[in-house]
Task: structure prediction
Amino acid sequence: AQKVTQAQTEISVVEKEDVTLDCVYETRDTTYYLFWYKQPPSGELVFLIRRNSFDEQNEISGRYSWNFQKSTSSFNFTITASQVVDSAVYFCALSPSGTYKYIFGTGTRLKVLA
Amino acid sequence: GAVVSQHPSWVICKSGTSVKIECRSLDFQATTMFWYRQFPKQSLMLMATSNEGSKATYEQGVEKDKFLINHASLTLSTLTVTSAHPEDSSFYICSARFGAGVGSGELFFGEGSRLTVL
Result:
């Protein structure tokens, strides 16, 4: 079975704090893609990152960083020095290679308080 | 970058009427589009895969007669909610595949369409 678990339903932090959003996935496929999307209150999904299963290098993009650990089937997302504009729902998604079907986690609602 | 646009962004209709939502890929040809449904404060659930020039493939539990999907061109897919009822009220999001071949993986999402059925 393919599944994505985001155990944190809601997180509140104070501005400038670091925050990590957890994502654990299940798949029997050896080739797959993992994604993170941001969904602000307006509703549109904003693409943040795509990672294929053969690339376990961690990635940093500005205040955002991702830690992909195949051994634990996790793809966690860290926001450093959080800002109010980071407040949104963040979704982790899994896509088996070749299908383009995304299996979304239930999302984590992040509230960054001023 | 690639852009996917949905119209209308929100719609209110009376129970029993049909509503059509359009999904367009603005600067690329999309052979495959996907329709998702999102209930308030919940995740996105794939409803169907729309292939240009052929019938859509529906996920288990999705009524194909209720949610009609047409993908008549490489840049347009439409979702028609037929005889809408209040339980059909939801946020509908389309996405389009960009890139050829197996495994390119990336989808671009529309802005979503919020349907409220009174």
The interface with chain A takes residues 32, 34, 41-46, 49, 91, 93, 95, 97, 102-103, 105-112, 114 of chain B (CB under 8 Å). DSSP finds no helices and eleven strands in chain B. The two ends of chain B are 37 Å apart (CA to CA). The mean pLDDT of chain B is 89.
